Amino acid sequence: MQKCRACDSSINPFMSFGKQPIANGFLAKDQFPKEYFFEMQVASCPKCGLFQLIEQPDKEMMFHGNYAFFSGTSSAMQKHFAGYAEMVKTEYLKEPDPFVVEIGSNDGILLVNFAQAGIRHMGVEPSANVADVARKRGVQTLNKFFNRETAVEIVAGQGKADAFMAANVMCHIPFFHSVIEGIDALLKDRGVVIFEEPYLGDVLAKTSYDQIYDEHVFLFSLTSIAYVFGVHGFELVDVHPQETHGGSMRYVLARKGMRPVSAKVGQFLKAEKDAGLDKPETYAKFKAACEKSKRELTGLLGDLKAKGKRVVGYAATSKSTTVLNYCGIGPDLLEYISDTTPIKQGKFSPGMHIPVLSNEVFAARYPDYALLLGWNHSREIMAKEQAFKRGGGKWVSFVPTVGILE
User: Which of 76, 91, 285, 342 is 20 to 30 A from 106, alpha carbon to alpha carbon?
Assistant: First the structure.
């Protein structure tokens, strides 16, 4: 019997996605024999509602000096984070000489907006290579994992913070209570916690199971966030749905009684209840939907291959690792994966070992079909790849349904 990472209740996995590798573990051929795999099982806690991995690899295996994800490579995300920063500055930095802290600050894509405005800030980023990129952009960055000890260190040097921020990071951290203890030590009395993550409700509705991978130890709902933070004396005061990552939620929390609570909080909590996020049958339906998507996607790619069509993957994302390994999609079905990230090019995809090649290779000889692995950036990708479509190329998608996009 497993225990919930948040409330210690007994939980049982409702499905397994099979053996999965490190999602961002793009590797060279000589590394194939030593590649790490773990069984990726998932559960939903019946008490606190927290959706979670049963097992997660050690954090040092996922976040390190060769980490292969840089937020700033997407122009759409740069625009999104500029808007995020403006919201924080406008609504929550009312005191003179404000100070903000972001954890998992990556290459500084969010904090650079504060640095350029002359606002005191500190990023906390565990992967050394992306932390170095942030510093070169003028973003103050600590190369550490965040916990109470790190928070105390920051307060000693800078004072307490007006805002604690994160984006697509909190769901990565299994020692969640330790992080909240750090937040408590870091924030001023009226300080706010603002973070956004892929939203459980959207994942279930769209069968976007690729949001589940080693780094995402949790998928949050308002219900689970309210419970976990409530234990530490915080409450949800506002929420903002986001389009990023195929459906995310931005949460705003404060110490209980310190700020007014938006009516949206109650509305979304009721919507989660109405959608059955607290019911086992909802997760049984999700499992069946994942299995159906797997059958349909492998069937479609197999049919295209049988017809002699050239099919490649587009965007070597972390999320694509789950899809490719769960569905058993390898170089027999995908010729290669096109990606613009230099650190991934010339390597092979985790687990299935599909070659990752540059976008120039894609453009030099367009395939017949491209599997849209970065579907959550589809608008940006399709706008960029008009020549592929004009040349007769077609996109294959699998979220929310499997099919060929016209």
Answer: 91
Which CA distances in Å does 134 have to 122, 142, 269, 364? 11, 10, 37, 33
What pLDDT, on a 0 to 100 scale, did the predictor assign at position 130?
85
Q: Which residue has the higher pLDDT, 377 or 325?
A: 325
pLDDT in tens, 326-348: 999 999 999 999 999 898 999 99
34 assigned to some structural domain: no
The upper half-sphere exposure of residue 80, i.e. CA atoms within 13 Å in the direction of its Cβ, equals 19
pLDDT of residue 176: 87
pLDDT at 8 over 90: yes
pTM: 0.91
Please tell me whether the peptide bond between 21 and the residue prior to it is cis, using omega within 30 degrees of 0. Answer: no
Burial class (CB in 10 A: 0-12, 13-18, 19+), 32: exposed
**Residue 338 in contact with residue 312, Cβ under 8 Å?**
yes
How far apart are the C-alpha atoms of 129 and 132, rounded to whole Å? 5
Residue 347 neighbours by CB under 8 Å, 6+ apart: 26, 27, 28, 356
Predicted local distance difference test score (pLDDT) of residue 68:
46
C-alpha separations of 149 from 45, 66, 153, 177, 186 in Å: 29, 25, 6, 13, 10
Token duo for residue 81? 């984070």
Q: Are 72 and 130 in contact (CB under 8 A)?
A: no
Which CATH number covers residue 306?
3.40.50.720
Q: Which domain holds residue 382?
A: 298-405
Same structural domain for residues 97 and 176? yes
Is the pLDDT at 303 greater than 90? The verdict is yes
Cβ contacts of residue 258 below 8 Å, gap of 6+?
A: 189, 190
Task: Provide the domain count of the chain.
Answer: 2
Q: Rounded to an integer, what is the distance from CA 375 to the centroid of its chain?
A: 13
Residue 222 phi/psi, 5-degree rounding, is -60, -40
